[in-house]
Write a structure and sequence with these properties.
By secondary structure, the chain is mainly alpha-helical. It is about 70% helix and about 0% strand.
Amino acid sequence: MGKYQLDDKGKAQVQRFHEKHSQGGNGKKERLAKLRQQFLEKNKK
């Protein structure tokens, strides 16, 4: 582990920060919608 060790509350804050600032899917609902769309496209083939 790094220099700083976080408790559960701190880990949750860091995770939220990374989700907010990531360039990927901006939230669980959008990510689930993308996965669902990919799944449906695969099943059509």
